[in-house]
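Bug report

Summary: C-alpha cells for Orotidine-5'-phosphate decarboxylase differ between web form and batch submission.
Environment: batch mode, default settings.
Steps: 1) Submit the sequence below via batch. 2) Compare with the web form result.

Sequence submitted:
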Amino acid sequence: MSTTGFAARYRAAVDARGRLCAGIDPHAALLEQWGLPVSVDGLRAFAEAAVAGLGPTAAVIKPQVAFFEAFGSAGLAVLEDTIAGCRAAGALVLADAKRGDIGSTMAAYTTAWLDEGSPLCSDAVTVSPYLGFGALSPAVEQARATDRGVFVLARTSNPDGQALQTARTAAATTVAQSIVDDGAAVNADGSATVGVVVGATREHGLDLRELAGPILSPGLGAQGATAADLASIFGDTADLAWLLPAASRSILGAGPDPAALAAAVGATRDEIEAALSS
Ligand SMILES: O=c1ccn([C@@H]2O[C@H](COP(=O)(O)O)[C@@H](O)[C@H]2O)c(=O)[nH]1
C-alpha cells in the first residue's frame, strides 16, 4: 500500500484509531435532546462537546456543513472552530459540503475547502460529480498537491439516487462505476487523492477493488445499516483496508457528555473492526 500523499495521512489516522468516520450533524432534534437551544449559542455548545468527545477518538470526523450553514455567517464561524478543534485533536476532517460546479467556480470551492489559507480548510471535502468528473479537476489537483482528499459521490445511501446512479453510460458501465473508475485513474499514482461515497444501506453493484482510495460508507445506525452488513456488502467487492464506515446520529445520541460521546465512538469502531476482521 502506498505511503505517499493523502494515502499516508489517511493510513496513519486509521491505523491509530480504527475504521470509523464520526459525523457532527447538529440536527435541531439533537440540540433539543441535549437540552440546548436551537440557536447559534446552542450550535456552539453542541459543536464544542462533539469536538471534545470525537476529536481525540475518531480517525476521521465529518462535520455536515448544512447544519452550520443553516445559521448563516455565525454558523459558519462555529464550523471554522469545529474544523480547527478536530484537527488540533488529531483527527482528519472531512467537510461534508458536497460541492460541484463548472471548473471556474469549482476553483473557488477548492479555495474555500482545501486551501490552507482558508478558515474552512479541511483534510478532505465531499464533492458531487453531476457536472462531470472532469469539472472536479481544480479540487482533485489541489488535493493531490497538498496531500488532501476529495470524496466523490458514487452510490449514495438514500434510495432516491438509484435510477441516476445505476443508469448505463455510453460505455455500458453504470454511472456510479464510471465515477469509481475515474477515481481509480487518479489514484494510480498511489496518492489516494480520490475517495468515493458508497452507502452501506444496500448492495451497490460496484467493483471497488481497483480504487486504491478511501470508501466512505454512510448509513450505519440511523439509516438502518449494521456493521455486519458492511462485511457482506463490501467483502468481495472492495479492499476492506480502505473502507471507512460513517455514522452520525447513532453516535451523537450518546451526548452531550464528551466522555459518553467518546465511548460511543469506541463502541461503534470496535463493532466495525470486529465485523470486518471476522
Ligand atoms: O450517501 C450519502 C452521503 C452522505 N450522507 C451524509 O452522512 C451523514 C449520515 O448521518 P446519519 O445520522 O448517520 O444518518 C449525513 O451527514 C448525510 O448527509 C449520507 O447519509 N449518505
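Above is the batch result. After comparison, the two runs are identical; trailing whitespace caused the diff. The radius of gyration is 17 Å. Residues 15 and 59 are 8 Å apart (CA to CA).
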